[in-house]
Fold this protein.
Amino acid sequence: MNRAKTVFALLPIVFGFFITGFVDVVGISSSYVQRDFNLSDTMANFLPFAVFIWFFIFSIPTGMLMNRVGRKTTVQISNGITLVAMMIPFVYYSYASCLLAFGLLGIANTMLQVAQNPLLANVVSGKQLTGALTTGQFIKAISSFSGPFIAAFAASYFGSWQTMFPLFAGITLISSIWLQVSPIPREQQNQQPSTFPEVWGLLSNKTVLLLFLGILFIVGLDVGINITTPKLLMERCQLPLQEAGYGVSVYFACRTIGTFIGAFLLARYSASGLLKISTLVAVSALALLFSASDKMTIFLLVGIVGFAGANVFPILFSMALGTLPDKANEISGLMVTGVAGGALIPLVMGVITDHWGSQLGAVAVIMCCSVYLLACAFLLKPRTTT
């Protein structure tokens, strides 16, 4: 494939990462739903649970399906489910309909994330693949950053925050059409797909296990900050919800900048070294967040966490794909299973926060995630991280 054709094939795949960012709107959405239906933290945090639990259930089956129907077809199936999910809260708004919509979004996003990363390997490889993964995370970060602003605009201009969902549906449709007409080479289909025991058996590899848990905790940290920041600002600074929601945008703006800078840093420096520095900075910022009570200080610390953690997911994921390259589909499914951390960690946060009566409990859980990531960065051997 010549350079021009490669770029033409790569662009719609990378744009598809914008769709993966839709799951992050569950953070600000849970705050609006909690307010609208007067829910406890535990009940509100069932929304991210409804999204991310499907990563645990569907990731490995999606990897197996992908061996049969191909990566591009799997992405297109996910786009169809996303279209349906995005219209449900707009057509009928209730706590139950939101759970259904975000549950379908979780299923669709599971399939998308499992297929999207290895689909890049149909077009590029080696260092180009790592760069493409980082670029994809940059596009995803832009999507995540835009969510709270779109919700606030919809709430103030249209009088209903859920009017943002038809826009997301339209973007999904554009992405699907663009991907369909693109000249992406089709991979060879595996005539003997791996079984569930074989995929889970990959965790017997210590490096794969460390990386799997790393994915679980970085996603838990990411979703945790996403849903906690507005509540923390309302609790400590007495801000109204719409203003507190901008704290999420600060987080994602800094994460977007971090992924952009990371694409250049990863081309020049060791991924393992960048991982160590990133996790050390994140732990330090979260430690200060325990006692922060000023709005600008909280914004600053949340932004630092977003910037520092921006490249952790793509680094861990590319390490995993590089550990067992002949099992790329299976590794992708297994790693995306770890995204279920976005369901489990917020649920733990909600229970502890309701028990303590303070968002301090949520910050403590997020801190535990970051400490594991720091340990993981130093436990991984250099030869597996370059």
Remarks:
- The mean pLDDT is 85.
- The domain at 8-183+194-384 is CATH 1.20.1250.20 (Growth Hormone; Chain: A;).
- The chain has 19 helices and no strands.
- The first helix runs from residue 3 to 15.
